[in-house]
Amino acid sequence: MTMEKVEVPDQHLEPSIARSPATQDTSLPQPKSSASTALGRVTSHLTTRSIINPGPPPDGGFRAWMQVACAWLAIMNTWGFVNSFGAFQTYYASILPQSNSTISWIGSTQACLMFATGIFSGRALDAGWFRPTVVAGIILQIVGIFTMSVATNYWQLLLTQGICTGVAGGIFFVPVMGLCSTYFAKRRGMALGIVTSGNSFGGIVYPVVVRQLLEKVGFGWTVRVLGFINVAALSVVIAFMKPRLPPRKSGPLVDYAAFRDVPYILYVLGICFLMPPIYFVFYYVASFARDELGMSYADSLNLVIIANGVGIPARVLPGYIADHFLGVLNTTILGVACNVAILWAWLGVDSIAAFYVFAVIWGLASASFQSLFPSTIAALSNDITKTGTRLGMAFLVIGLSALAGGPIAGAVLEAGGDYTAPICWSSASTVAGLGLIVSARCVKHGWRVRVRC
């Protein structure tokens, strides 16, 4: 980062002219005060305004891959935490007087706010305020987790885990992802695929910690250990993430032309039908193992770990297939179709072994299309300069659908008395999502099957 240019007084003045403070020519440039110089230095470190002519993306190298590693840690500590809520859902249901549906509002609120807040925090990256935004989000995230460790009732958990960590994650995950993408061009798809795999890895780490520590040290210290993991990982993010672009002008928050773009509308609606079933499985996979198959709480968390863990390769490989063979829309459709099949097959699961198989296949299928939907929105946009705006609009709508997913599933579960009704609901919702995405593909590219799109 270059230092701010400071004007220096002319050194070639007549030496015989004495300049008292009263007679000094104020038209000449004056040295800056120490206070303004210090302020300029601070501002130059906080913003990216002193960056000029960064050149093309390096598309590799130590610094670029360091940004990938840091972004991976940030995603692990945000979306990985969200995807681990199944470990908490089952535990909260055993200690709180609230119903499963009410408890699900904690995780659903967290996921919704992650999506929604990201719309606005991405603008901070454009304006050159990357570091203050990320630091503020990380501090709020840590505060949320450590206050969660002393929560004793439902409303305290909703405020700390649901609202505080949800807003905090949304504040810094979008700028981190955006910054990482500025370091890559040809390898951007692979780089972001690696970054999103942090989501699945976090879904392994958090449930493992909960399973190992909860019975030994209690809820409070278990959550504090999670907080210390976040402190260590996110300190690396603050230390090593470095913006490379100067501030740039952002467009409006809403692209009204998108409301007349039928493929875009159909695709976003399709994702809205897919998100509630995803969070239903993440939140209730351990509860099903415990309630229907008689597994212990500790053993049931293995299903949460597996469902997240198998998603690591599934978040990277589909991007490669889409880039080189099928296209993002076709690859998304295949992933969703596999998801439909495995969700309906859940109705036939009646043993622990079969449920392990279900968790593996579902984890692979669901992760495959989750990693592709931002790329698909870009592919559906006719104007690449509006991709960020349209992605932000999609995040807001998808966040609202994620908000409703867990509570709806819990309400259906309570009304039906067993898991048959919520499984049928989630499967039918996924079928509807698949139909909308196929419709978006056909409106955009026609009905021919052998079209790469």
TrEMBL record:
<feature type="transmembrane region" description="Helical">
    <location>
        <begin position="221"/>
        <end position="241"/>
    </location>
</feature>
<feature type="transmembrane region" description="Helical">
    <location>
        <begin position="353"/>
        <end position="373"/>
    </location>
</feature>
<protein>
    <submittedName>
        <fullName>MFS general substrate transporter</fullName>
    </submittedName>
</protein>
<keyword id="KW-0812">Transmembrane</keyword>
<feature type="transmembrane region" description="Helical">
    <location>
        <begin position="297"/>
        <end position="318"/>
    </location>
</feature>
<dbReference type="InterPro" id="IPR050327">
    <property type="entry name" value="Proton-linked_MCT"/>
</dbReference>
<feature type="transmembrane region" description="Helical">
    <location>
        <begin position="158"/>
        <end position="179"/>
    </location>
</feature>
<dbReference type="Pfam" id="PF07690">
    <property type="entry name" value="MFS_1"/>
</dbReference>
<feature type="transmembrane region" description="Helical">
    <location>
        <begin position="325"/>
        <end position="347"/>
    </location>
</feature>
<feature type="region of interest" description="Disordered">
    <location>
        <begin position="1"/>
        <end position="36"/>
    </location>
</feature>
<feature type="compositionally biased region" description="Polar residues">
    <location>
        <begin position="21"/>
        <end position="36"/>
    </location>
</feature>
<keyword id="KW-1133">Transmembrane helix</keyword>
<dbReference type="GO" id="GO:0022857">
    <property type="term" value="F:transmembrane transporter activity"/>
</dbReference>
<feature type="transmembrane region" description="Helical">
    <location>
        <begin position="394"/>
        <end position="413"/>
    </location>
</feature>
<dbReference type="InterPro" id="IPR036259">
    <property type="entry name" value="MFS_trans_sf"/>
</dbReference>
<feature type="transmembrane region" description="Helical">
    <location>
        <begin position="133"/>
        <end position="152"/>
    </location>
</feature>
<feature type="transmembrane region" description="Helical">
    <location>
        <begin position="262"/>
        <end position="285"/>
    </location>
</feature>
<keyword id="KW-0472">Membrane</keyword>
<feature type="transmembrane region" description="Helical">
    <location>
        <begin position="191"/>
        <end position="209"/>
    </location>
</feature>
<feature type="transmembrane region" description="Helical">
    <location>
        <begin position="64"/>
        <end position="82"/>
    </location>
</feature>
<dbReference type="GO" id="GO:0016020">
    <property type="term" value="C:membrane"/>
</dbReference>
<feature type="transmembrane region" description="Helical">
    <location>
        <begin position="102"/>
        <end position="121"/>
    </location>
</feature>
<feature type="compositionally biased region" description="Basic and acidic residues">
    <location>
        <begin position="1"/>
        <end position="13"/>
    </location>
</feature>
<comment type="similarity">
    <text>Belongs to the major facilitator superfamily. Monocarboxylate porter (TC 2.A.1.13) family.</text>
</comment>
<dbReference type="InterPro" id="IPR011701">
    <property type="entry name" value="MFS"/>
</dbReference>
<feature type="transmembrane region" description="Helical">
    <location>
        <begin position="419"/>
        <end position="440"/>
    </location>
</feature>
